[in-house]
Amino acid sequence: MTASDSDLWPVLTIKGAPDTETLADIKALAAAAEESDGNPPLSEQTWVNLRAADSADLLVLATYAGEERSDPATASALAGVAVVSLATAAGADNVLELVVHPSYRGEGVGLRLAEAVQHHTELPNLKAWSHGGHEAAGRLAARFGFAPVRELWRMRLTHPAGMPDAELPAGVVIRAFVPGQDEEAWLAANAAAFADHPEQGAMTLSDLRARMAEDWFDPAGFLLAERRDGGGLLGFHWTKIHPRTGSHPSIGEVYVVGVTPQAQGTGLGKALTIAGIKHLQDAGEHAIMLYVDADNEPAVGLYRKLGFTRWDVDVMYAAQAQADRQESVTL
């Protein structure tokens, strides 16, 4: 670790995974921010990287409040943290997530961390997530010349009683994932289904195993669709249940639905979506949420037909030049 020269909010720089004590501080900070905002401030992949003791694909910048500035009601003096998930392939994005503790907002913590990130000139193609699309995050992004390039909607279903039956294509069956048997087959199906997706399509065996090691993992809710004659996986619906946290009740999630190219257009995606929702209902979850890219019109249309409505939005920012290039390609 190295300390910056700033007297007001000195920044500690950690390359690689943080130590146990710092990780505990980040967890406490993230929990406080989520309780205040209603949004998890760090993505799941970021948590996977933070928890991996041997992870080298991280840059963590943290600032602590001194004794004279610390809030006695706050268990940790960690005022804010910026986590950059470093690109692992040429041309890939470096992705920033920045969190400020509710007790220290409006005191220049976010600005200080953003300046510290900017000083790391070895971070080309830097993009940043704002989970919840907060106005303060938008202002901070604009100050550094960043503009929105992507919207990830969170949609929510609160009255799923009228869900139709899951009508599978002929010759297709659904079964539960079997740990120790289905990992490689699922990874191949996932890569095929999400070949153009910037995060999901890049899932590795270590990523999968890290999620399987989480407390929320339940193979019974990891549904696989395959040919009855054993012709291989055609699609999947991995569900998730978020436990109650603070004042927020538990909620089910359409975690990821994927269909391989050979089965697209057969109605399998809709059938898998419905099957997973009904699994969550049977588990006692009446509120169900999901993430979907705002420009994925077929998926958004399907979810709306099933009763989902837009609930919140995550916004990704990039430097204005990148944003202009992306917009020109889209247009």
UniProtKB/TrEMBL annotation:
Q: Where does acetyl-CoA 2 bind?
A: V257, G258, V259, Q264, G265, T266, G267, L268, G269, K270
Residues annotated for 1D-myo-inositol 2-(L-cysteinylamino)-2-deoxy-alpha-D-glucopyranoside binding in this entry: E44, E199, K240, E253, Y291
Catalysed reactions listed for this entry: 1D-myo-inositol 2-(L-cysteinylamino)-2-deoxy-alpha-D-glucopyranoside + acetyl-CoA = mycothiol + CoA + H(+)
Question: Which GO MF term does the entry hold, naming one?
Answer: mycothiol synthase activity
N-acetyltransferase domain sequence ranges:
18-160, 172-331
Which sequence ranges are marked TM in the entry?
none
PROSITE patterns named in the record: GNAT
In terms of NCBIfam families, this protein maps to: mycothiol_MshD
Subunit-level organization: Monomer.
Name of this protein: Mycothiol acetyltransferase
Q: Which organism is it from?
A: Arthrobacter sulfonylureivorans
Q: Gene name on record? A: mshD
